[in-house]
Amino acid sequence: MSKQNISSTLIATWVAVLSIVLFLVATPLRAQYNPSNYTFLVASGFLCGSAACPAAARSANDETYELTGAGTFDVQTKSVTAAGTFAHKSSQGTVLETGVWTTTQLVSFDSYGYAPGALRQLGIAPGLQTDSPRLMPMAITAMPAGGLAVFRIRLLPLSGPQLNAVLEVNCALGNVPRERSVEGIRLTLERSNSEYSEEINGRVMFLSMRPGMSTPAKAPQEEKAPETPEQPHN
Known about the structure:
single chain, six-stranded antiparallel β-barrel, 2 helices, globular
């Protein structure tokens, strides 16, 4: 891929990242209800109020990959739209490469169940009410959920060849298996089979799109005046 094409791809992906994050954290959710639809954040948006950003994973030789990103996916169709940024660092912390990542393939998703209080603990109201009269009386609610999502992603560095990898995103909410109690990411580079399997930092969250029903008050009906009985004609 030429440098011009890489630059164009990076710009387009940056726009996608910003658009997804702004959509997730700053606007009402207007997607149609589907119980298999999820949005997710990887060390981005409202999750970055602490030192949990970016998410990072370490290899056996102490190199690290740091990632941020956001996206949406459908468990039934395995479709996904997501993007983010990454940095590859040496064991001494030297930045070896940076760039963006994209994905269009969900390999699997294992749900741990819902965690209704998770957003309240972060100081965020879970109900995202829309003022659009076209969608009333339906109000879309983002329900936090735990789970393990596996994506096949493509790393697009600022220089050098593209890399294909498998990204595991683990959110430790709900009924979490003991072996997945640490929240964060893991990364496996497909070409070299290099594994970054130690989660060392990062907050992630899945949000299931669930509807909340509210019945609007009925407008009072005008009382009809009693009809006057007809008088018999002489």
